[in-house]
Amino acid sequence: MSDSARILDQMNERSREVFRRVVEGYLSSGDPVGSRTLTRTMSEKVSAATIRNVMQDLEYLGLLDSPHVSAGRIPTQQGLRMFVDGLLEVRDLNTDDRERLDAMVSGSEADISGLMTRVGSALSGATQVASLVLAPKHEAPIKHIEFVQLAADRALVVLVFADGQVENRVFTPPPGQTPSSLREAANFLNSLAEGLTIAELRRKISTEISQRRQEIDSLARDLVEGGLATWADEGGSNERLIVRGRANLLEEGAAPEDLDRIRTLFDDLERKRDIAEFLELTDEGEGVRIFIGSENKLFSLSGSSLVISPYMNADRKIVGAVGVIGPTRLNYGRIVPIVDYTAQLLGRMISDRS
């Protein structure tokens, strides 16, 4: 039994109700909840002084905190964790949310990145916070590869797969690359790629480059390695993480310190740090998982909550993850079923395509 479960088990009914109502009030309004407010909502008639005594006990246990001397209480991270684990009432997905998600993700484009972007937009729209979608690796054989120069420091690599799907990603080529090195790199890859998956191609390239160093110049060789690294999962540096709904976390009137934390979060996202860990967070089994504050080891934004769920392919293998990130004051009871349904929906769509 966890510490939180032990504490909850030892609390009497009055303490448990005061705690639950403080957390629910805070999640609803974002404001501290005072004793006088609770006297109007408690199931039994008790005085404000009695409630204040209970609050002090809960504060001593580390479950509540007083942001100001004379203000009400708010839950601590430990308190939120205990509430989520032991007292959270998860609602059924309502019809409006279900219909919105179904409508926004319907479509038939072959590009998997288009599907993932639509899913992210639908999830962000339904929850009004930022969404995160970790796209699955594409395991179909490759049909054709092409590099397109966008600028001196930006290039596009396009992959056409044997199943008709097309994926493209922007990457930073090595300094000094030329149009001829782009063509040479593409020709080199296409001579090796047909019938191979990305993982197989990468292994073969490592062998071929070492064997044919005299046949391809150094810039093209670097370009090959840099372009293919876009899909490799080494160091979590790929572009498989799709983020939507950033503006939902940048509301007008937000406190400067909150904006700073949000910018820190998105700096982390844009660096794509530890992307592999995002999927590892879900590897302990099916279902939605909630990470609160500093429990969220993927990002440095300690004042956030991450609600994620894995999704599976037709073989019941975890291939990606989907979720939302926002302030710790999330409507968990509503968001959990939305994330859960989105993961199931995405899993069905991935299975249908395969």
UniProtKB/TrEMBL annotation:
A single GO BP: negative regulation of DNA-templated transcription
Official protein name in the record: Heat-inducible transcription repressor HrcA
All copies of domain Heat-inducible transcription repressor HrcA C-terminal, residue ranges: 115-336
Record-level Gene Ontology MF annotations: DNA binding
Record keyword Repressor present: yes
Assigned protein family: Belongs to the HrcA family.
Encoding gene per record: hrcA
Keyword annotations from UniProtKB, A to Z: Repressor, Stress response, Transcription, Transcription regulation
Keyword Thylakoid: no
Job description of the protein: Negative regulator of class I heat shock genes (grpE-dnaK-dnaJ and groELS operons). Prevents heat-shock induction of these operons.
Domain of life from the UniProt record: Bacteria
Source species of the chain: Aliiruegeria haliotis
InterPro entries: GAF-like_dom_sf (IPR029016), HrcA (IPR002571), HrcA_C (IPR021153), WH-like_DNA-bd_sf (IPR036388), WH_DNA-bd_sf (IPR036390), WHTH_transcript_rep_HrcA_IDD (IPR023120)
Pfam families: HrcA
PANTHER family, sorted: HEAT-INDUCIBLE TRANSCRIPTION REPRESSOR HRCA
